[in-house]
Amino acid sequence: MGSNADMGLEFRLGGWLFRNGYCLYAPAYHLYKKYVDRFGLRLIRSAVGQGSVILDVGANIGALSVLFSDMVGPGGRVHAFEPEALNFQRLRRRVRKRGNISTYPLAVSDRSGPLKLYKSSSLNVDHRTYDDGSGREVAEAEAVAIDDLFGSRRVDLVKMDIQGSECQALAGMRETLRNNPDAVLYIECWPYGLKKAGASGEELLDLVSGLGFQPKMIDPRNRRLTDIRFSRSEWESRETDPSAYFDLWCQRHFPDPQQY
Question: Could you write out the DSSP letters of every residue in the chain?
């Protein structure tokens, strides 16, 4: 989803604009997300519709939440989770007139309760729930396990972009996903961040597969889904490269890929 840390100049400029010119940043970031995630959004539109329920885990300021809101319509619901206080304030303000978005000032993890949030001083898209050793400012936050909120309730799609903590979040939504056999997962896979969080890209794929999903890599340039066949050395290379990330599209049953 193109929002992880230690990126190039465009992210640094975006971070500066977020802090110093938010009235320009918000619409610019909205357009940016529509562009860079356009194939992912196309996949999402193929999987959800009016009345669907979407979990936006790592909603940030709500750029995707508002797009999801339009997709599911007044009979659907978007549940947007964002633990960082300023991001959440701006998320809530952004969606306040949309009656089908619920916002939660919470991280999503494997268990509900307090946790520490390690904040980025330069990028509002790079707050983390683990200590990467870089001396970040620490804030107290609250986490929720999705199973504690949803359990047997309907969920059609989970979008997740939480800087490497995806394995912990998935571990806390096993029951919810079991109870929603047609649910789809749209997840950022950032091996560098996953390793910093104590997991790995391989572990993420194994966890997704263990929940009954078939993970595919999104190839946005060629607008297709591909199988993931990295060697251990390729994973290791990605684990040391903060710019190496990709998005996963995970379903339990795949129809003819030509439909995408």
Answer: ----SS--HHHHHHHHHHHH-HHHHHHHHHHHHHHHTHHHHHHHHHH--TT-EEEEES-TTSHHHHHHHHHH-TTSEEEEE--SHHHHHHHHHHHTT-TTEEEE--EE-SS-EEEEEEE-SS-TT--BSS--SS--EEEEEEEE-HHHHTTTS---EEEE--TT-HHHHHHTTHHHHHT-TT-EEEEEE-HHHHHHTT--HHHHHHHHHHTT-EEEEEETTTTEEE-----HHHHHHHHT-TT--EEEEEESS---GGG-
Architecture category of domain 9-259 in CATH: 3-Layer(aba) Sandwich (3.40)
Provide the token pair at 181. 């056999």
Write down the pTM of the prediction.
Answer: 0.92
CA distance 141 to 68: 26
Q: Which two tokens stand for residue 245?
A: 């990330």
* Residue-wise pLDDT tens digits, 189-229: 999 999 999 999 999 999 999 999 999 999 999 999 999 99
